[in-house]
Design a protein that fits this description.
Layout (H helix, E strand, L loop, with lengths): L1 E2 L9 H19 L20 H7 L14 E7 L11 H26 L4 E7 L4 H9 L8 E3 L4 H14 L3 E3 L14 E3 L4 H15 L4 E6 L5 H10 L5 E4 L7 H4 L8 E5 L4 H14 L5 E5 L11 H6 L2 E5 L8 H14 L5 H16 L6 H7 L2 E2 L4 E2 L1 E4 L3 E4 L3 E6 L2 E4 L2
Parallel strand pairs: 2-3, 2-4, 4-5, 5-6, 6-15, 7-8, 7-9, 9-10, 10-11
Antiparallel strand pairs: 1-17, 11-16, 12-13, 14-15, 16-17
Helix pairs in contact: 3-12, 4-5, 6-7
Amino acid sequence: MILVQNLLQPLNGSKKSLFFLFLGLLCSCAARKNNTVSSTQNVQPTRPGYTTGSLKKDSGILSSKRQDPESFSTISLLLPFKLSAINVENRAELEKSYLPLDFYQGFRLAIDSLAATGSKIRLNVLDSQDDSSRISSLIALGQLDHSSLVVGPIFPGEIEKVKSFAARNHTFFVSPLSPHKLSEFNNPYLIQVSSPLEAYARQTAIFINEHYPGAHIVILRFTESDDKFIKPLTEVLVAAPEIIKAINNQKMVFLKSKLEPGKQHILIVPSLDKSFWSNLMLYLTGQNLDIPLVIFAHPNFERLQFTNYDLMQQIGLRFASNYLLDRSEQNVQGFIRAYKNRYFANPSRYAVIGFDIGTYFGRLAKNKSTIEEALKESDFKGLHTEFKFKKVPGQGYENNSIMILKYNQGQLLEDK
């Protein structure tokens, strides 16, 4: 189970003060060659209280000076740290900077855990600076050469720059967060962890077909952008849905005649407009509905940050997701303790994702030549997500592990 509250906490004064110390550590380790874990001058971010010296001492990842470099597999981690461009007085920039840093810390913890069990992995950390030209420079300088696997970059423009390198060198690279379709890149070496919107829509339709046959399906189309979810969904739905134009007001007149007593209703609401959702919830609350009703929302529904969990349970709200964290599991609690002990902070969602990706792909990277075969055979259940990769010929690998989540007593659970 997962507490519905977001793991990412807003920055307060103390956290901002810690960031100044953190930024100083980042700058110092970017300038010192002997603080990197590989033989190249790469960025090695750390949190306050976790210095580059202590990281190197207890990491279990050995530099090429101490052992034969041929005995190691190299993972290049390519993230937009943008160390030289962070404005610490800008709250939005400051919060945005924590995404790659938290991901790195979770990923690093996973690699260190593997190293402690005997895996020989060299981590090559690079700052893409959120700049596609920077990616080109890193490739031209040979910074990605000899990589068994590349994790990153995050953004589509940067992915474009890496894909030619990957094809030329037969090197797989992982897109850790981008939800873009594989067809936008057409690279057989691309491994995409986050499913695209179309995959979420198809899985939502499959779930409805299996669990609610014969239900009356109503789709509320609020804006044209909703069609990105509606089109792939309707292609898979067995029952023909009724698509109606939604209007944003508290009366919701267009909906009154659609919800008939005694009949199972499925309401699909792909909008991410918070005002529209507020009015819809207000309307449903006032109706005192005594009918079987289930609402399927956009997979990014959580970003609207509604906190009336009892109401969302009452209206049967569900959405598709790759991610679910059960904080009652011992391995999750163990990760949280280890993360807090090392970084003196609670792990964010991106730290947990980084840990899962680091654990799975750290194991796969042991032998570059067997990665493709391992992708076909090795499903993985991490702390926060599952990996079930499907090969799309000529386009890469897509994660087909998608769950339908529902609210229950202030928590999110998988609806099976």
